[in-house]
Design a protein that fits this description.
Strand order of the largest sheet: 1-2-3-4
Largest sheet: 4 strands, antiparallel
Structural class: mainly beta
Number of helices: 3
Distance between the termini: 43 Å
Number of strands: 12
Radius of gyration: 17 Å
Length: 192
């Protein structure tokens, strides 16, 4: 539309925040895209080198059903964003602006579902976060259990080759003996 042709990337971010009544939860760069996420939707703003100069000035909806639970629950690695939301499969990735679910499998899903052994307290999701660990190659998401104030558990996804892997990975739940309030992505000098 003519209105979208005149938008700057900041106008687009503001527009996403105001539309549809869904809570904005995150924004991060992914290749030549700016991903703008909400609880149940994800938008993509395209640009080549500089979003101020060469942006396509349009928002593309890449999901109207999947979102991002909190900004720190997006882990970007090698052009892929690993994200967590509150939908039944919980975890998914985006590559090149398209969405792919990470199949968490029945065993772990049953542990995270309501009434499961590790039922998350979704009302505390603002303190959740994800990180990448090179040994073993895994993406982890820390979450809070019902009745706790901070994360003490993490869902861990391990794949033979996380970077661009289409192979199914293994999942586990890690328990920490103390609350974990933050993490950093561990990347060595060789990028691993």
């Amino acid at each position: 539309s003519a209105e979208n042709d005149e938008m700057t990337w900041t106008d687009s971010a503001i527009a996403v925040g105001r539309m549809d009544g869904d809570l904005s939860t995150g924004a991060f760069p992914l290749g030549n895209y700016l991903i703008l996420a909400k609880r149940t939707k994800v938008y993509r703003f395209d640009y080549d080198l500089d979003p101020n100069d060469d942006a396509q000035r349009a928002l593309t909806v890449i999901s109207e059903m999947r979102g991002l639970i909190a900004n720190r629950c997006a882990v970007v690695l090698e052009g892929t964003a690993y994200m967590m939301d509150q939908q039944p499969n919980y975890f998914w990735v985006t590559r090149g602006g398209a969405l792919f679910p990470l199949d968490i499998g029945r065993a772990i899903r049953n542990k995270l579902d309501p009434g499961g052994d590790y039922e998350p307290d979704w009302s505390k999701s603002s303190c959740w976060f994800g990180w990448y660990s090179p040994i073993p190659k895994s993406i982890c998401w820390a979450f809070t259990l019902l009745g706790e104030d901070y994360p003490r558990f993490a869902a861990e996804y391990m794949a033979p080759n996380i970077e661009g892997s289409d192979e199914p990975g293994r999942w586990c739940i890690r328990e920490y003996h103390h609350y974990i309030r933050g993490a950093v992505n561990a990347v060595g000098a060789d990028g691993v």
